[in-house]
What does this fold into?
Amino acid sequence: MIIPLIQALYDPRASFPQDVTFYEKALEDIAYFGVASQVYFLIQQQGRGSQVPLFFQERLKQDYDETLYLNLFIKNQTDRLLKKFEELAICVIPLKGVYFAEKYFGHLGARGTTDIDVLVQKHDLERAIQCVKSLGYTIEQDCTTSHFHWSLSKPLPYCSVPLTVELHWDFLIEKTSNLNMDEFWGEALPMASFQYVKELSVYHSFYMICLHGWSHYMNSPKYFIDIIQILHARRDQIDFNRLLEDAATHKTLRRMIRTLLIVYRYFPHLSEIKELPLPLPLQSKINFEGAYRGSKSRNIKQFVSKVYDKFFNFDSLGHSWAALVQFVCNLGKMMFSSEMKKF
It folds into this structure.
């Protein structure tokens, strides 16, 4: 239900649906996937509020305002954290979040976020953990260094959900690719007046956001919107030939191709924005319409697609095996923890 709406927001040839029932159902999808702020901001940015029903726009604005207030708070907390990293001379790169919204959408409230993601160099991980803890994030989640991030949280007053900082040192699970993080660090530039706080290049931001969408099975329109938005906003700074060559070297090529083909399949206008040097399929391997909205709506095709992405969408058998081993280890750990709680 939400795909035609996103197409209307990005494809100049598409128009908004006229059926009021469409917008009633679209609100359910938007709430489920948490993309109200993106949809509302794009409608307002394009000056097309009069083309959608008033009840639809008012509901989106309510969610957008809540997102904006939360993002203001998270930005304040992120700034405090980045200043602390700078003070301790720890190199970091903020990922996604409030800075991503400002840079690629043009406004702090244009894209919701609920936590703080930061890239660190692996040799700085312990120092980074202590830095985050010094600001009150003392609740550690169970993590393993074979994964690629460490999570720490702190409780917030009058809020049942803690604020979490995720320290990433990679974008993929260990031994499931040949991804070279030094390349991402090498092209990162200092952010604002910082020396140790940097930002990814546009090219590497796009690379990262594609891998992020793939790792979540592209199971939400927010992953599509992120990719589309970067292409619309910074298409001239993304070199697809380089992307495919790098992905081949990094052994992430099948993941990259699958992600891009799915996005271009649902949003064919992108071929006019930025031509993809790959043949587009007539059909996608997933059915995104209404997909992943709870167990009742899942079907065999979606299940098979998820299994394929999780274990077989790799460039080598060794990487597939590593993903399977990691899954089995995590499953065993969860079962062990569950059994221990019974005692």
User: Anything to note?
Assistant: Residues 66 and 222 are 17 Å apart (CA to CA). The first strand starts at residue 92 and ends at 95. The chain has 14 helices and seven strands. The mean pLDDT is 88.
